[in-house]
């Protein structure tokens, strides 16, 4: 108990001593009562900003749109003859050069048909030779021709066409037709084509896709076997609003940014403009050619494009981010002697990067382009980047 009292008295004594010291050192007011110490008012720190010098430059007006890559050259590979697949030399995604063998259809039956046609033609040739070498037959052929020419004018209407057809052929042609040689020659050629069609080759450099056959499988004439797609160059199809169509010209350069490679820019050329406007969308398709030597871009990918339409010489341009809208009025901030000064401006042409200033700003002034969103007029600033 005594200990607790001792501690309490000690604390009370220390408190009284502290009060006495503060009371003596504190300044008094005019009426003798002590007053509180007044701290000096602190100024707000300067806002860090980035600036750039306003200058005139050429303004490029652009049309921004998006499109889909397609192949300039592609085709379905269709079977010209029927039969089992004896060998398949490609798979999905394989690259083939023009003339490479893609697949083979069993050719045995077509080879036999070719030999039969040739044998029949040989028989007809022998018969033709026997008749042609007969001088009396040749003379008779000439006499028959003369008789026909004289008879055409007097023949009945039903016979006239047949007689004229005979008269239009030489004796050799007539003999060939009579012996079946003409027909046999056609049959041999048809058999040759069927035999050639059992070996299917690449018509151009391309990638293989949509393979629908397998070794040993049966194919039918007219069936699609696979698809061939060439990847260089590619075509980019872009729909353009009909109101902007008048600004697009053949041969114009186009900046292309594929969605798959957003940090890369490619250049294309407008090669074709569709003559038809889609009534539902109000757009017209333009076709842009783009080189793709490394085959990185694939058909079906999307891309953003910027089509240059007009170039306006020496316009006062500022970055889009430098312009602010306050109370429905356009303004910018300029840096003058450590302070931000706002300027109301009138704007002109615009694109995705720049805005033209027609009034309120002059070339050579130091425009604040960053750190200005919350600035007030005459606010103190410090330039950290120019």
Write out key terms for the chains shown.
single chain, about 375 residues, alpha+beta, Elongation Factor Tu (Ef-tu), domain 3, OB fold (Dihydrolipoamide Acetyltransferase, E2P), 3 domains, 6-stranded mixed β-sheet, 6-stranded antiparallel β-barrel, 6 helices, 22 strands, about 25% helix, disordered N terminus
Structure overview:
With 386 residues, the chain is α+β, with helices and mostly antiparallel strands. It folds into three domains: 44-72 and 230-386, Efflux pump adaptor protein, beta barrel domain (Elongation Factor Tu (Ef-tu), domain 3, Beta Barrel); 74-103 and 204-228, RNA polymerase II/Efflux pump adaptor protein, barrel-sandwich hybrid domain (OB fold (Dihydrolipoamide Acetyltransferase, E2P)), CATH 2.40.50.100; 107-197, no CATH class. The chain has helices at residues 2-25, 108-132, 135-151, 157-167, 171-179, 181-196, and strands at residues 47-53, 55-71, 74-78, 83-88, 95-96, 101-105, 199-201, 206-209, 218-219, 224-229, 234-241, 253-258, 266-278, 283-290, 302-319, 324-326, 329-336, 339-344, 346-350, 354-359, 366-370, 379-385. The strands form four sheets. The protein has a six-stranded mixed sheet with strand order 16-17-18-22-1-21, with no helix packed on it. The longest helix has 25 residues, at 108-132.
């Amino acid at each position: 108990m005594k200990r607790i009292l001792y501690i309490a008295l000690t604390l009370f004594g220390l408190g009284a001593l502290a009060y006495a010291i503060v009371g003596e050192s504190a300044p008094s007011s005019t009426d003798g009562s002590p007053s509180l110490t007044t701290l000096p008012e602190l100024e707000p720190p300067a806002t860090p900003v980035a600036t750039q010098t306003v200058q005139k430059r050429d303004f490029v007006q652009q049309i921004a749109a998006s499109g889909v890559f397609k192949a300039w050259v592609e085709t379905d590979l269709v079977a010209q003859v029927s039969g089992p697949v004896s060998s398949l030399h490609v798979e999905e995604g394989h690259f083939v050069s023009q003339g490479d063998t893609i697949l083979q259809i069993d050719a045995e039956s077509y080879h036999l048909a070719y030999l039969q046609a040739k044998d029949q033609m040989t028989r007809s040739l022998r018969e033709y030779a026997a008749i042609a070498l007969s001088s009396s037959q040749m003379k008779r052929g000439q006499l028959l021709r003369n008789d026909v020419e004289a008879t055409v004018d007097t023949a009945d209407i039903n016979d006239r066409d047949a007689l004229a057809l005979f008269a239009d052929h030489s004796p050799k042609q007539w003999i060939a037709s009579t012996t079946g040689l003409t027909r046999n020659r056609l049959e041999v050629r048809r058999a040759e084509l069927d035999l050639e069609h059992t070996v299917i080759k690449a018509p151009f450099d391309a990638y293989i896709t949509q393979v629908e056959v397998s070794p040993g499988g049966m194919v039918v004439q007219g069936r699609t076997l696979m698809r061939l797609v060439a990847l260089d160059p590619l075509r980019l199809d872009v729909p353009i609003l009909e109101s902007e169509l008048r600004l697009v010209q053949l041969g114009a350069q186009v900046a292309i940014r594929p969605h798959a490679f957003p940090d890369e820019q490619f250049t294309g050329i407008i090669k074709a403009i569709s003559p038809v406007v889609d009534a539902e969308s109000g757009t017209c398709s333009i076709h842009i050619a783009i080189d793709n030597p490394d085959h990185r871009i694939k058909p079906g990918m999307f891309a953003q494009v910027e089509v240059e339409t007009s170039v306006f010489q020496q316009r006062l341009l500022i970055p889009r981010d430098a312009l602010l809208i306050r109370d429905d009025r356009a303004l910018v901030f300029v840096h003058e002697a450590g302070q931000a000064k706002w300027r109301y401006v009138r704007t002109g042409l615009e694109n995705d990067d720049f805005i033209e200033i027609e009034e309120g700003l002059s070339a050579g002034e130091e425009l604040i382009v960053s750190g200005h969103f919350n600035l007030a007029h005459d606010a103190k600033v410090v330039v950290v980047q120019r």
